[in-house]
Queue: 2 jobs
Job 1
Amino acid sequence: MLLSLSSQNVIQYLQKVGLRSAEDGAKYESKLPENNRKNHNLLVTLANNHKLLVKQEQHINLDISHHEFFKEWLFHQLLQQFPILGNISEITSLVLNFDQENSILVRSYLSEYTELETFYQNNGIFPIEIAISIGNALAGLHRTTFQQREYRDFMATAPQGQFRYNFYNPAQGISSISPEIFGTIPTEALKFHALYQCYESLESAIADLAYEWNPCCLTHNDLQLNNILVHSRWEQLDNCLVRLIDWETCTWGDPAFDLGTILASYVKIWLSSLIVDPTLELEESLHLAMIPLETIQPSILAILRSYLHGFPMILDYNQNFLVRVIQFTGLALIHQIQEMIDNRKYFDNTNLCMLEVAKSLLTMPEQAVLTIFGASETEILQSATGKKLPKPAKETQLVRIYYEKTRLRGC
């Protein structure tokens, strides 16, 4: 029978796997990290105030095998197997034990760090230093593993008793709805599925992204703000400002997907603050947002510029890299809408506006570059490469990132 962890047996379990001795005086701490739909989290404090985060996949009592913790464990085994990757360890948390049989993973708990999403919510500021640190961290991960076959082969290792892994392509759209969906999601969310399925250009753009999927380095694949930690003393530190956690979906992948995912989290901050009213045009709602795009734009641009500065060779490898980043930003917004529907059973007109913006990013990425970054593609690439490029025609205003003819009623 598989072990199901709880506050009553977690101390005994840690002692059994050798992470705590009887003399440690470890205690179970009642204040837990937020549990999510996939994992059950337990926080344990040892005698020296060292904290451990014990995670168990919630499907433990089901006949299901997702092996997501195995991927995180494999990633940390990669760092140990190849010491040359030591710099990547500085942007992660230390994994101490993996119990494949019971789907339990134990890692050190970074007490001096807080989730970036919480940091932004509590402080209402978007420091450039943090954005630059994110870009540098992501560039280091991708650059160090870029086109390294030995790392790729290592990450293709399968769990015990399983076949060799095939790397998953996350550039997927939303599956078609079936009769079973009725009653499981809010009625309002049916609008999302109806609109998504009637946009042929949107489905075509996503299909092209999936077809052109080009895995070339190790990718995190879930870089939302709650998977990025920022140090409590970020203003005093010169390095290690941020850490990337929850590597459960990491694999050999396309670097543009990682960058697009994190940029989508920033765009979502803007879109989630829209003032939505039936009397307002979509363009008016975008300009009346409580957190204007101009407020977070410097951070978005800083992430991209620091990334390209740290990994300039990606522009030679993929000349359409910036356009693909914009498209993956739109795709990530759609995935976030779908996740909200599935997990929170929530959907409103703000999400419809978000879908409209996401569609524009996917189907008109070249025009959307200026709107999202506040700089043209030529200016961004010239800044990253240092090469003098022809100056683009001066723009008098930001381009619209939606189709005027498909304005949503009620937005």
Job 2
Amino acid sequence: MKRWVATIDLVTLEVESDPTFKFKCVENCGLCCERLEIPLRGEDIERIEELGYNAWEFVDYEKLFYRGDKFLGYAIKKNPVTDACVFLDPETKKCKIYNHRPLACRLYPFIFVKHGDKMEIYVKEDSFCPGINHPEGEPITREFILREYGDVIEEYRQKVIHESPKHRVKVSV
């Protein structure tokens, strides 16, 4: 189940958000790495291969992701012993490729949906994620979004600015 938590205007960077929602990623939890099937985009595969891994080591070519009839990508492989992501260290619960992890891992538990000039942000309300509405969590403010996902937002902003002549003005981030 997903729930709306924020909308960011990709031109002005104004944010409207649900003030009752808070999030804090619980360090070394690893439950998302153990329980989710993670989709890989072509860019994710290339970035991981640049670390010296061969795609056959981490891409599960038997699990495919689609949105409607559009092919989105393959899944990341699971460790046959732990059934967790192959990059999750089973002892430390740390990701071996954290700085190069797939976009889906970076975004989780959030789902970004672009509608014209706006990016809607939803939270995937998985009961196993202890960070959702964590007592020490922070609200999904403009500062939170730009700190955690500024590069993703900027990538979409550039598309919006280039697609529409009325948005050719650069807004500083």
